[in-house]
């Protein structure tokens, strides 16, 4: 695709905070942005040129949206593949591409794909009924986490299993749907790698943040991670290899468990910009949102050099009603414009520049 010219229109499927920050970055590069979301008054719609409110299966609305855009991307990986096909049938590209979407939408397909490309994961077993759980649990060492194959996020659709007697209750807890049982990993820490792949197939990654979760939701990301350079480099190579294997275009995030001996086990990937990369706009030469828009627009990649040590703190639920008077002088606040705080809802984040990078 020849590079998009300023003034062209980028469509974004999904209207949450990721779309909002992408739209802001796109506007800075001179693009117009249209949001497509089933939600009324989505956070991204309020910073974009316009918004379509329609369901994912509304082929007429999707076609109209496609006609109004020069290229389409997404901020939400559970966009149905059928909706993407409607847009493509209307003659517009949807980036990152169907492969990245279809692989990431199903945990079984995702982990099988990672393993097939030499990226080790936690051991897992396919679960089609509660009665599959006891034998799978035993083969995984007696402790595991049941995860729905589709549509889980932020710890939703998951249940820990410590005993075969818990099989039925765990199965009911995740909604009695096709699942995987994953062995429990006694990790030393969690990291993620954000990688971008351009339309010419060039890849670049950012320094991997160390991620801490609370109640299954990301609470804090920190750079540098404190891990040995060799471990970070290996994680970055794996993420770049994954982006190549998917033929991905745009930003992708690959999450890892790091074992006490430094072994890396991939957990999952998101075929989009990611919460653990929210520190990049303030701490790096090019942030993840600008980089993603560059990829989608067919522009060259920006440099990802990290300029600051930094931490990113998520503002969840009531914490989103942050008092600006209490911000430190190095705190950069981003609020997502959500009308109402609910428990577990991501309302914003603070990126704290700790010190200029020294190494
Ligand atoms: P996920 O939605 O798969 O990213 O899981 C959310 C969080 O739950 C992860 O970031 C881990 O902190 C924890 N978790 C998920 N799977 C496992 C596992 N197999 N072993 C230990 N902790 C896990």
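^ structure tokens above, recovered residues below v
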């Amino acid at each position: 695709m020849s590079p998009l010219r300023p003034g062209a229109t980028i469509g974004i499927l999904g209207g949450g905070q990721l779309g909002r920050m992408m739209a802001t970055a796109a506007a800075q590069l001179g693009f117009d942005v249209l949001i497509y979301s089933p939600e009324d008054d989505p956070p991204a719609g309020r910073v974009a040129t316009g918004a379509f409110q329609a369901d994912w299966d509304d082929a007429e609305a999707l076609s109209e949206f496609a006609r109004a855009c020069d290229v389409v991307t997404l901020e939400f990986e559970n966009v149905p593949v059928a909706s993407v096909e409607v847009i493509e049938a209307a003659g517009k590209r949807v980036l990152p591409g169907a492969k990245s979407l279809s692989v990431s939408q199903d945990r079984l397909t995702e982990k099988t794909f990672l393993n097939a490309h030499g990226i080790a994961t936690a051991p897992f077993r396919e679960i089609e009924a509660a009665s599959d759980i006891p034998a799978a649990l035993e083969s995984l060492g007696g402790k595991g986490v049941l995860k729905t194959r589709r549509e889980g996020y932020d710890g939703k659709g998951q249940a820990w299993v410590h005993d075969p007697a818990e099989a039925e209750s765990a199965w009911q807890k995740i909604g009695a749907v096709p699942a995987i049982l994953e062995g429990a990993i006694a990790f030393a820490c969690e990291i993620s790698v954000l990688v971008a792949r351009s339309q010419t197939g060039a890849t670049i990654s950012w320094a991997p943040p160390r991620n801490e979760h609370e109640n299954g939701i990301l609470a804090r990301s920190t750079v540098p991670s404190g891990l040995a350079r060799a471990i970070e480099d290996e994680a970055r190579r794996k993420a770049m290899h994954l982006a190549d294997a998917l033929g991905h275009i745009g930003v992708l995030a690959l999450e890892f468990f790091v074992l006490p001996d430094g072994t890396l086990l991939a957990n999952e990937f998101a075929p989009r910009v990611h919460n653990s990369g929210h520190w990049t706009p303030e701490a790096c030469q090019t942030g993840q949102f600008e980089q993603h828009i560059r990829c989608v627009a067919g522009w060259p990649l920006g440099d990802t050099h990290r300029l600051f040590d930094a931490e990113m703190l998520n503002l969840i639920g009531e914490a989103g009603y942050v008092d600006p008077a209490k911000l430190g002088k190095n705190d950069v606040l981003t609020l997502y414009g959500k009308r109402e705080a609910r428990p577990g809802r991501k309302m914003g984040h603070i990126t704290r520049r700790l010190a200029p990078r020294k190494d």
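The chain is about 25% helix and 30% strand.
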